[in-house]
Amino acid sequence: MTGDVTTVVLAKAPVPGRVKTRLCPPATPALAAAIASAALLDTLDAAAGVPGATVVALTGDRAAATGAAELAAALAGLDVVGQRGDGLAARIAAAHADAAALHPGRPTLQVGMDTPQASAALLRRCADRLAEPGVDAVLGPANDGGWWVLGLNDPHAAAALAGVPMSSDETGARTLDALRAAGLRVVTAEPLTDVDTAEEAVAVAGEVPGSRFARAVAALPARCPEVPA
């Protein structure tokens, strides 16, 4: 990889009742928050394996989060900024801009906390693609129609996402169209599954055995139809 990047993790404090609500049922709000906490911590570990810096764009009450002490330890020494902006697209653009202000001259590689299977090696491959000649952006599609990673050589180009509907089955395609309409040369990364449902959580946990995320998902009640016995 030619040069460092700033890995941006867009995250929400894992407070019961405020994260991963689509896991309930079969999960309780407390278990859903524990799964979200594990996903975030695994994602921060992966980000730490990418040369450069990590910026965490965080919203929510860290003190009320499940695993608050472990989260505080993981965030120690990292750049943490508050999410800002009206709507998810604006918050994404602001996170890239804030990362650029903290670490000028570096590309940004942004992920969320819904793909704990995104390893440090995978993130490094995305950064490598971003460093290739003739590439301005890297976009990783998600299997639900969204996307899981956005890399930009010019972090301010994230402003192109204004008007793109988020959290829909058209988000990935519309994001790709918006980036290209802004004149960016985009390559795609491998698709991943976003974790929203219990079935998705179990499937992704199977990809990362031994992880915090897999251990948390193992607590889902096996009697529920989404979870194999």
UniProtKB/TrEMBL annotation:
- Spell out where the chain crosses the membrane: none
Enumerate the InterPro entries for this protein: Nucleotide-diphossugar_trans, Trfase_1_rSAM/seldom-assoc
Tell me which SUPFAM superfamilies the record gives: Nucleotide-diphospho-sugar transferases
Q: Name one Pfam family in it.
A: DUF2064
Q: What is this protein called?
A: DUF2064 domain-containing protein
Q: Which organism is it from?
A: Pseudonocardia spirodelae
Q: What is the lineage of its organism?
A: Bacteria, Bacillati, Actinomycetota, Actinomycetes, Pseudonocardiales
